[in-house]
Each structure stands twice: as structure tokens, then as C-alpha cells.
Predict the structure.
Amino acid sequence: MSAEIIDGKALAATFRGQIAEQVSQLKQEKNVVPHLTAVLVGDDPASAVYVRNKQRACEKAGIQSTLKRLSADTTEAELISIVESLNADSGVHGILVQLPLPKHINETAILDVVNPLKDVDAFHPENVGLIVQGRPRYLPCTPYGIQQMILSTKMETAGKHAVVLGRSEIVGKPMAMLLVQRGPGADATVTICHSRTRHLNEIVKTADIIIAAIGKPEFVTADMVKPGAVVIDVGINRVDDRLVGDVDFEGVKEVASAITPVPGGVGPMTIAMLLKNTLMAARIQSGGE
């Protein structure tokens, strides 16, 4: 029996509708319109597409969106100065520095400069620390979206074994942190696998939940998946003229109980959670939370 396809587009549309209502309410009650400013350095085509999609989603939800485009030769000092000016601008509630940055810029140095209250990506060490302690201000957009997708399957996550493939600061590590906390969509036993993990196939085979964020096209195959597992595919890889994930979708869907497609899975939910965080940032900075 084929797996349930977790429709990220439909789920994200539901969240965006709820967010739009709350944005309208905030405007009526406090005359505050959430404002997200994205900073795009260089001309990476994938980054430009991501930023454009985020802007469109903001507009549909009634969130003000501004894009600062900077040339690829922008210096680290210049970028820090721009971020600091956005920190000081009370009309900007959320700051998004689109990654990756050009190689001559230290990404960590830039992300550390963002005001934690405006850090709607939840990359600042203060926000990461709050997540680890189980008292988050904002949740990182992709892991947050994934958790909502798992909840949509009605799987009881408590006590389940979740395997996260990948240990990035953006997906792997924070995903593990969300799954191991107390509460709905969490209380799981979590294993993080990475390039140095031994017996990886055997470990993945024991998982009730698989989060694939390893950056290798169709890496997870049907023989690695426990029957009935929920499989979340974070990967986006271009192979010839098509986009594929980190999971062999056609093979794995015959074994899993639920699976996300690529595209149309995790991506739309990441953007929806960014809007949710921007709304929350506006509430916090206007004294609402």
C-alpha cells in the first residue's frame, strides 16, 4: 500500500490563511504591520528564487516585505553595518540574511550581529540556546515546518525513534532539538547521523521517523526504511533536468506510511513558518507578547 503523501503546499496554505487573519487583527488592534527585510548578497539564482517566494508569501499574508540586494563584492564590514542599521530601525520586525553568503564573508559573524528579537530564522546563539532549554522565542523555520508536517500525519511521536540524517545548524541539529523536547510532535528518542556515522543503513532501518537532510540525491532507498515509517525529505537536488530529494520517492513510498514530495513538501512549510515567526516578532516588539 502506497504511503500518504504529505502535501506541504496545502498545509502551508492553511497556516498562511491563519497568519493572514492574525496579521489583520494586529493591524486593527495596534496599528502594526509586521515587516520582514531580506538581505540578498550576490546573484546566486537559487537564493534569488527563495527570496522571491518568501516575498510573495509575505504579500499574500499582509506582511510588509523589503528586499535589500547587495553586490557579490560587498565586504563583511559593509554587510555588518547594513544589519546593524536594520537592528536600529523600529519599523523592521524581522531580518533575514539569505544564505549562503559569498565565501569572503563569515556567515557566523553576520548572523551573530542580528538582533535576537528580529532573528526570525532563529539562528542567533541566544535563540538557539532558548530552543535547547525548551523555552523558545522563535523556532527555526524548516524544523518547525517539519514538526507540523509530522503532526499532520497523526503519528504519536512520544517514544518513537527518530533518525535525522545531517547535522547542519539550519536543519539537522535544531530538528533533533525539537523532536527531543517535551510536548506534541516531540518526546522522541533521537539519533543524528552524519558523514562519519558507522552502520548508517542499519541505524536508519530502525527509525519510526526519518528526516533526510544530507544533500545526496535519492540517498535513502526502500531497503533502508522500516515498514510504516514517516519519511520527511528536506533535500533539493538537481539531477539532469529534474528536482529530486534525498529520498528515492518512488521506492520509499511503497514502504513508508507517510512521505513528503520534492518539490511541494518541506519548502512551502519553511516559508509559512517564517511568516509565523515574523508575526510573532512584530507582536513582541510592539509589546504584545
